[in-house]
Amino acid sequence: METTLDTSMITATDKAAQRVFDLMKEANLDETYFIRVAVEGGGCSGLSYKLDFDNEEKAGDQIFESNGVKIVCDMKSFLYLCGTELDFSDGLNGKGFAFNNPNATRTCGCGESFAV
Q1: Contacts of residue 33, Cβ cutoff 8 Å, sequence gap at least 6
Q2: What's the pTM value of the predicted model, to 2 decimals?
Q3: ∠ CA 104-72-41 to the nearest 5 degrees?
Q4: Phi-psi label, residue 89: left if phi above 0, alpha if psi -120 to 50, beta otherwise
Q5: pLDDT tens, position by position, 72-110
Q6: Is 111 left (phi over 0), alpha (psi -120 to 50) or beta?
Q7: From 35, 58, 74, 108, which residue has the greatest number of CB atoms within 10 Å?
Q8: Could you tell me the CA-to-CA distances from 66 to 9, 20, 57, 73, 94 in Å, in that order?
């Protein structure tokens, strides 16, 4: 069965969603909190990803839900992140969240910055 990414939104894999829920529980955050993803200048490839918990929506925010996780992104960042899938790895080769961004033309070795 072929899987296609929905380029009109930002999604989270099952593993990323479970890790988000675990982190929220550890931090004693209630259901008013969500994941805010953003792009900012910097990093070795020019742009870097930002991922944090938030509980205040802002004007112009793009709001998505994937695997039970509410994901919020400002419109400027969404232009770089549309179609991105948030994943989580806890393997030997690296641990943490990863952005599978179809818009990135180049990424750094650590996966935390990219260029378009």
Answers
A1: 24, 53, 54, 55
A2: 0.82
A3: 45
A4: beta
A5: 999 999 998 999 999 998 876 767 898 998 888 766 555
A6: left
A7: 35
A8: 9, 12, 17, 13, 24
Q: Which amino acid is at 95?
A: K
End-to-end CA distance of the chain: 30
**Residues 49, 37: Cα–Cα separation, whole Å:** 7
CATH class of the 11-115 domain in this structure: mainly beta
Q: Which amino acid is at 62?
A: Q
Distances (CA, A) of 10 to 58, 59, 69, 91, 113: 17, 18, 11, 23, 17
H/E segment holding residue 67: none
> Locate tokens 């929220």: which residue?
24
Could you report the per-residue pLDDT of 66-77, keeping only the tens digit for each?
A: 999 999 999 999
Determine the Cα–Cα distance for residues 83 and 86; give it in Å rounded to an integer.
Answer: 10
